[in-house]
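Here is a typical sample entry:
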Amino acid sequence: MMMSEFPVEGQDVMLIASEVSPDAAFAGTAYRTDPLTVQINTESALAPGTKAIVIYQKDGVYHTLTSQVVKSTVRGGITFCEIRTTAHENLERRRSDRYPVEMGCELGFMGGTGQGLGVSRAYATIKDISKNGAWVTGDVPHYRGVLYNVQIPLPGDAAIRALGICTRIRPKDGFAIDFVDFIGGSQQLLVGVVDGLANEAA
């Protein structure tokens, strides 16, 4: 993978480790780029092989690196995670068909990006949805870069559980959440919902 696709040394990043916990999101910085090492400002040693999603900005656009932890070391209350990246994605270049819908969802504000919002959880309405994200409206605190734990109830006891970041805002018209990771089999559930909407629209 090209080094130009990595965050630069000293740049702020978020590291998600949903295999550890659905709410495992850590604010940190890119400590080194070769090998890519993320400095987390807490004692949170992650086991080798743990899946990690690194989120960062480049030229005002959000990017993700899908990675695995190679090793982590705790020194003086700070964790240094060396990671091996397997995929890079520019969130603004993702393309998938969107479908109008009216679905309730629950948004949990995750550590780091959600600090200072004054609430930990809120309810909102999804107005359109795709395999990559959703457009959300409601009286919900938001700004670009807020990281959400999104739960979308489905008929029965099922629910789509995704981690997403606010990437775009239209005042008085809502905001976009781009999904960056899924909990359990939620990605397949989302695909099923979107495919169903596509069939209805055909």
